[in-house]
Specification:
single chain, alpha+beta, FomD barrel-like fold
Length: 173
């Protein structure tokens, strides 16, 4: 089933460690409070000027093809999720990282479930020629591996990442 919206190209972001900025898919440049490099990924924490959330934390995990995020929601806009995971390609360019979102997302409710979202967007993009077969297949494999790993650890994203030698930590609350 498709979502009846026009397929859109993959979204790209830039993470500039020297400038301490994050350029979103629409080209808006936002200040970043913290970047932290680890051998296995990049942590970013920044304020958000969004009506539903005021702060965003993310770990870019290139070898897994994942971006694991925590949204700090404004009162009245809370969502039933602990972590939101984007599937895509995340490249370490040294002082500037790049991301290309491949449509699929996971919502992790720790201890309860992991939900796969936006399969229709991936199919629409593939049919429209916006994502080649290799990247579309890679997205599915990454999503399935993540769901499997998270589920095997009691639907605990951080436990799964820790078991892979990626001790991701987010700010409390």
């Amino acid at each position: 089933m498709t979502n009846n919206t026009a397929a859109h190209p993959p979204k790209h972001e830039t993470f500039d460690l020297d400038a301490m900025t994050n350029t979103d898919p629409k080209g808006f440049v936002r200040p970043v409070d913290e970047y932290r490099r680890e051998p296995w990924g990049l942590y970013m924490a920044r304020p958000a000027d969004h009506p539903r959330f005021y702060y965003l934390e993310s770990w870019l995990l290139p070898t897994l093809g994942l971006r694991a995020s925590v949204f700090h929601f404004t009162p009245g806009h809370e969502r039933d999720q602990d972590h939101y995971v984007d599937i895509g390609e995340f490249s370490d360019g040294g002082r500037t990282w790049q991301s290309e979102d491949h449509y699929l997302d996971l919502v992790v409710r720790t201890g309860t479930c992991t939900e796969l979202l936006d399969v229709d967007e991936l199919f629409d993009a593939r049919l429209a020629g916006l994502l080649d077969q290799e990247r579309a297949e890679a997205a599915v494999h990454r999503a399935v591996a993540a769901v499997d790993g998270i589920a095997a650890h009691g639907h605990d994203l951080l436990a799964w990442l820790g078991s892979l030698g990626m001790p991701a930590v987010f700010r409390p609350g």
